[in-house]
Design a protein that fits this description.
The protein is an alpha+beta fold. It folds into three domains: 133 residues, PAS domain (Beta-Lactamase), CATH 3.30.450.20; 86 residues, Signal transduction histidine kinase, dimerisation/phosphotransfer (DHp) domain (Helix Hairpins), CATH 1.10.287; 157 residues, Histidine kinase-like ATPase, C-terminal domain (Heat Shock Protein 90, 2-Layer Sandwich). It has eleven helices and twelve strands. The strands form three sheets. The chain has a five-stranded antiparallel sheet, sandwiched between helices. α1 packs antiparallel against α4. The chain starts with a helix and ends in an 8-residue tail after the last strand. Bound molecules: adenosine-5'-diphosphate. Adenosine-5'-diphosphate (ADP) binds next to α8 and α11.
Length: 450
């Protein structure tokens, strides 16, 4: 823009000056031409004579030549060229009958020159040559030029300073964000970038902060999980250690006690393997490698789970019953459905007293398969209801351990249900003490028909 400002208007005004100069010069030459118009033959005398009536023309110098280019009249008195030959292109052009006017600018002055023929009865009898050297307008033109250059300089400085300030502001905020990203990358998950303004950078910063929030939550959950898992593994290991130490350190321990201790060691080892199995299952669910599901009918799986749990229930004196709609078909693997049913129903038995019941109903409601498992056991207090699906969460730690729980069963159930796009909830039983677990899974296409 500045280059354009420094060229276009100047060129335009220069052309304007050129045009006005040429017009003015042609006008002056015309005056002389008309003064000489009556002369048939041009001589130094009659030309001087004729031009005495012409007043100031405003032109620096005027020459009148004959047809050979010899100067007959020169307006300049000192250094007059009268009698000499003037070989100017413009004079030759004029002698050939043409008007020739030119103007140029040399940096100090406007130089204009031009020539016209002197005609007598259609016959060229000579030429008038005019020449002007104008420094006054050149001065004006130069000051215009330098004014524009000065204004451009000021504008350029302003623009540069403004762009520097703006870019520094922008890069400053980006580097702040970058710094925050680096901090978080190094593991400082509590670090937050400061958000100023409401532009795109502020939006990115806000997004980054909420991403970091999630990262921190996930990281905290991971740490808690690792510490909980280590703790859970440590307890049976400590038990095993204690029992083996007792056997080794007690002299002459009787065979019956040794047998009892080894039995306890076996139980602890079994708990360890249950925990690691559950942990592995959860890790598999976490890893995102979802096994391709197929249409699975829930009723036959329920029947199998019922058979497996029958003995345990009988031992505890808990009555098992079930009812399943044959149309209940979901997209999952048989193992998924088995895990869901087994864990919830086993809990029902585990947390029920002698004489209790666990009832399972599988129905089709609209586009969903609903699995309801109801028991009249110890129930879950209000404040724990929303937490029972968390990893290692137990309402009553001692009781859970005593019944062989790992605290992971319901987490596995919840993760499995969510991965199959279902929902799960735990409620109090309405008719009395106990718990109801309700799982909803999308009905498979083609399911719902008998
Ligand atoms: P656990 O292996 O300890 O049973 P779960 O994840 O299966 O772990 O269950 C978490 C906790 O929820 C249990 O420790 C228990 O306190 C409570 N819970 C689960 N199911 C029931 C139920 N049917 N009745 C009462 N409490 C239950």
């Amino acid at each position: 823009m500045l280059i354009l400002l420094n060229t276009y208007p100047l060129l335009e005004s220069q052309n304007l000056v050129f045009r006005s100069k040429v017009t003015a010069m042609a006008g002056s030459v015309k005056v002389i031409e008309s003064a000489l118009s009556g002369l048939e033959d041009l001589t130094p005398e009659n030309v001087s004579q004729a031009l005495t009536v012409v007043e100031e023309t405003g032109v620096s110098r005027i020459l009148v030549t004959d047809t050979a280019g010899r100067v007959l009249y020169d307006s300049r008195e000192t250094g007059s060229a009268v009698g000499l030959y003037a070989f100017y292109t413009e004079i030759f052009q004029a002698l050939r009958g043409q008007n020739a006017y030119y103007c140029s600018y040399d940096g100090d002055a406007f130089l204009s020159r031009g020539a016209s023929p002197v005609v007598y009865h259609n016959q060229t009898v000579g030429a008038i040559y005019a020449y002007e050297y104008d420094t006054e307008q050149a001065e004006l033109f130069k000051s215009l030029q330098s004014n524009i250059a000065r204004i451009s300089g000021v504008v350029a400085v302003f623009v540069i300073v403004l762009s520097l300030l703006l870019s520094r502001m922008l890069t400053g905020r980006i580097s702040e964000l970058l710094q925050a990203i680096r901090h978080v990358r190094e593991g400082a998950y509590s670090h937050r970038a400061e958000v100023k303004g409401s532009d795109e950078i502020a939006q990115i910063t806000a997004e980054f902060n909420s991403l970091t929030d999630r990262l921190q939550t996930t990281e905290n959950a991971r740490r808690r999980f690792v510490s909980d898992a280590s703790h859970e593994l440590k307890t049976p290991l400590a038990g095993i250690r204690l029992l083996t130490d007792s056997i080794l350190q007690t002299e002459n321990m009787d065979a019956e006690t040794i047998h009892e201790f080894v039995g306890d060691i076996g139980q602890e080892a079994e708990r360890l393997s249950r925990i690691t199995e559950d942990l592995l299952r959860l890790t598999r669910l976490d890893s995102g490698a979802l096994e391709q599901g197929a249409a699975v009918a829930v009723a036959p799986v329920l029947e199998r789970v019922q058979r497996m749990l029958r003995m345990v229930a009988k031992e505890k004196g808990v009555a098992l019953s079930y009812q399943a709609d044959d149309r209940a078909v979901v997209i999952a693997t048989e193992d998924d459905i088995h895990q869901i049913l087994y864990n919830i129903m086993e809990n029902g038995i585990k947390y029920s007293a002698n004489g209790g019941f666990v009832r399972t109903d599988v129905t089709v409601e609209g586009q969903a398969v609903v699995i309801r498992v109801e028991d009249n056991g110890v129930g879950i207090p209000d404040e724990d209801l929303s937490h029972v699906f968390e990893r290692f969460y137990r309402v009553d730690k001692a009781r859970s351990r005593a019944v062989g729980g790992t605290g992971l069963g319901l987490s596995i159930v919840r993760d499995t249900v969510l991965r199959r796009e279902g929902t799960i909830e735990a409620r109090h039983r309405e008719e009395g003490p106990g718990t109801v677990f309700i799982v909803r899974l999308p009905l498979a296409e083609g399911g719902g028909e008998a």
